[in-house]
Protein backbone atom coordinates (compact mmCIF):
# COMPACT_ATOMS: atom_id res chain seq x y z
CA UNK A 1 0.00 0.00 0.00
CA UNK A 2 2.80 2.42 0.90
CA UNK A 3 4.54 1.61 -2.38
CA UNK A 4 1.36 2.54 -4.30
CA UNK A 5 1.09 5.85 -2.43
CA UNK A 6 4.73 6.66 -3.21
CA UNK A 7 4.14 5.85 -6.86
CA UNK A 8 1.08 8.11 -6.97
CA UNK A 9 3.01 10.95 -5.30
CA UNK A 10 5.85 10.55 -7.80
CA UNK A 11 3.42 10.56 -10.73
CA UNK A 12 1.66 13.69 -9.46
CA UNK A 13 4.98 15.45 -8.90
CA UNK A 14 6.08 14.50 -12.43
CA UNK A 15 2.86 15.91 -13.88
CA UNK A 16 3.27 19.17 -11.97
CA UNK A 17 6.87 19.54 -13.13
CA UNK A 18 5.89 18.76 -16.74
CA UNK A 19 3.04 21.26 -16.64
CA UNK A 20 5.34 23.91 -15.21
CA UNK A 21 7.95 23.29 -17.91
CA UNK A 22 5.29 23.42 -20.61
CA UNK A 23 4.08 26.79 -19.35
CA UNK A 24 7.59 28.28 -19.40
CA UNK A 25 7.87 30.83 -22.15
CA UNK A 26 11.16 31.75 -23.77
CA UNK A 27 12.33 34.69 -25.84
CA UNK A 28 12.39 32.29 -28.80
CA UNK A 29 8.58 32.41 -28.96
CA UNK A 30 8.47 36.15 -29.65
CA UNK A 31 7.69 38.50 -26.77
CA UNK A 32 7.94 42.06 -28.16
CA UNK A 33 6.76 44.00 -31.21
CA UNK A 34 8.92 45.60 -33.86
CA UNK A 35 7.34 48.99 -33.07
CA UNK A 36 8.34 48.55 -29.43
CA UNK A 37 11.90 47.65 -30.46
CA UNK A 38 12.04 50.78 -32.63
CA UNK A 39 11.11 52.91 -29.62
CA UNK A 40 13.71 51.01 -27.65
CA UNK A 41 16.33 51.73 -30.30
CA UNK A 42 15.72 55.46 -29.93
CA UNK A 43 15.99 55.24 -26.14
CA UNK A 44 19.04 52.98 -26.37
CA UNK A 45 20.85 55.53 -28.53
CA UNK A 46 20.04 58.27 -26.02
CA UNK A 47 20.78 56.47 -22.77
CA UNK A 48 22.88 53.37 -23.47
CA UNK A 49 25.01 53.64 -26.61
CA UNK A 50 27.55 55.95 -24.97
CA UNK A 51 28.76 53.07 -22.80
CA UNK A 52 27.52 49.92 -24.54
CA UNK A 53 28.30 51.20 -28.08
CA UNK A 54 25.86 51.59 -30.96
CA UNK A 55 26.18 47.91 -31.90
CA UNK A 56 25.70 46.69 -28.28
CA UNK A 57 29.23 45.24 -28.28
CA UNK A 58 30.37 47.04 -25.12
CA UNK A 59 34.06 47.37 -24.51
CA UNK A 60 36.79 48.41 -22.16
CA UNK A 61 37.76 51.84 -23.49
CA UNK A 62 36.49 55.09 -21.98
CA UNK A 63 33.80 55.55 -24.65
CA UNK A 64 32.38 52.08 -24.09
CA UNK A 65 33.23 50.82 -20.62
CA UNK A 66 30.16 48.63 -20.21
CA UNK A 67 29.44 44.96 -20.87
CA UNK A 68 28.28 43.70 -24.23
CA UNK A 69 24.53 43.31 -24.65
CA UNK A 70 24.83 40.79 -27.46
CA UNK A 71 25.24 37.04 -27.38
CA UNK A 72 25.71 35.01 -24.25
CA UNK A 73 26.21 38.09 -22.06
CA UNK A 74 22.46 38.70 -21.72
CA UNK A 75 21.55 35.04 -21.31
CA UNK A 76 23.26 34.90 -17.90
CA UNK A 77 20.34 36.99 -16.60
CA UNK A 78 18.16 33.85 -17.10
CA UNK A 79 14.74 35.47 -16.67
CA UNK A 80 13.72 38.50 -18.69
CA UNK A 81 12.70 40.18 -15.44
CA UNK A 82 16.34 40.18 -14.29
CA UNK A 83 17.44 42.07 -17.41
CA UNK A 84 14.54 44.51 -17.10
CA UNK A 85 15.17 45.15 -13.38
CA UNK A 86 18.89 45.66 -13.89
CA UNK A 87 18.28 48.29 -16.56
CA UNK A 88 15.53 49.95 -14.52
CA UNK A 89 17.41 50.03 -11.22
CA UNK A 90 21.05 50.48 -12.27
CA UNK A 91 21.09 52.27 -15.62
CA UNK A 92 22.20 54.62 -16.94
CA UNK A 93 25.29 54.46 -14.81
CA UNK A 94 25.55 58.22 -14.39
CA UNK A 95 21.85 58.63 -13.44
CA UNK A 96 20.76 55.28 -11.98
CA UNK A 97 17.05 54.58 -11.75
CA UNK A 98 16.08 57.61 -13.81
CA UNK A 99 14.38 55.71 -16.66
CA UNK A 100 10.69 54.88 -16.40
CA UNK A 101 9.38 51.32 -16.81
CA UNK A 102 8.10 51.93 -20.36
CA UNK A 103 11.46 53.19 -21.55
CA UNK A 104 13.25 50.26 -19.88
CA UNK A 105 10.97 47.60 -21.36
CA UNK A 106 11.31 49.17 -24.81
CA UNK A 107 15.10 48.99 -24.43
CA UNK A 108 14.76 45.32 -23.47
CA UNK A 109 12.72 44.78 -26.66
CA UNK A 110 15.45 46.45 -28.72
CA UNK A 111 18.15 44.30 -27.08
CA UNK A 112 16.13 41.18 -27.93
CA UNK A 113 15.68 42.33 -31.52
CA UNK A 114 19.39 43.07 -31.91
CA UNK A 115 20.16 39.59 -30.60
CA UNK A 116 18.01 38.08 -33.33
CA UNK A 117 15.06 36.96 -31.22
CA UNK A 118 11.74 36.98 -33.09
CA UNK A 119 9.08 39.63 -32.62
CA UNK A 120 5.42 39.03 -31.82
CA UNK A 121 2.08 40.78 -32.20
CA UNK A 122 1.81 41.90 -28.57
CA UNK A 123 4.11 44.31 -26.79
CA UNK A 124 6.26 43.19 -23.92
CA UNK A 125 4.85 44.55 -20.66
CA UNK A 126 6.82 45.86 -17.70
CA UNK A 127 5.09 43.35 -15.41
CA UNK A 128 7.63 41.67 -13.12
CA UNK A 129 5.54 38.54 -12.57
CA UNK A 130 5.00 38.04 -16.31
CA UNK A 131 8.66 38.77 -17.05
CA UNK A 132 9.74 36.14 -14.51
CA UNK A 133 7.98 33.56 -16.68
CA UNK A 134 10.01 34.42 -19.80
CA UNK A 135 13.37 32.70 -19.98
CA UNK A 136 16.42 34.08 -21.78
CA UNK A 137 17.81 31.17 -23.80
CA UNK A 138 20.37 30.63 -26.53
CA UNK A 139 19.20 30.69 -30.09
CA UNK A 140 19.36 27.26 -31.74
Structure description:
The protein is mostly helical. It is 53% helix and 3% strand. The protein is built from seven helices and two strands, in the order H-E-H-H-H-H-H-H-E. The protein has a two-stranded parallel sheet with strand order 1-2. Helix 5 crosses helix 6 (101-114). The longest helix is centred in the first third of the chain and has 22 residues, at 2-23.
Primary descriptors:
single chain, 140 residues, mainly alpha, two-stranded parallel ribbon, 2 strands, 53% helix, 3% strand
Order of SSEs? HEHHHHHHE
Low-confidence stretches: 13-22
Number of helices: 7
How much strand content do the residues show?
Answer: under 5%
Class from secondary-structure proportions: mainly alpha
**Would you report the number of β strands?**
2
Major β-sheet strand ordering: 1-2
What is the element layout, followed by pairings?
Layout: H1 2-23, E1 25-26, H2 34-47, H3 49-52, H4 72-75, H5 80-90, H6 101-114, H7 128-132, E2 134-135
Parallel strand pairs: 1-2
Helix pairs in contact: 2-6, 5-6
Amino acid sequence: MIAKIKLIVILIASLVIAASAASQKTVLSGVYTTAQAERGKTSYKLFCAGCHKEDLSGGGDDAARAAALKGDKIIVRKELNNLFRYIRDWMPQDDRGSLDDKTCIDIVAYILQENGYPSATEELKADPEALKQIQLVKKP
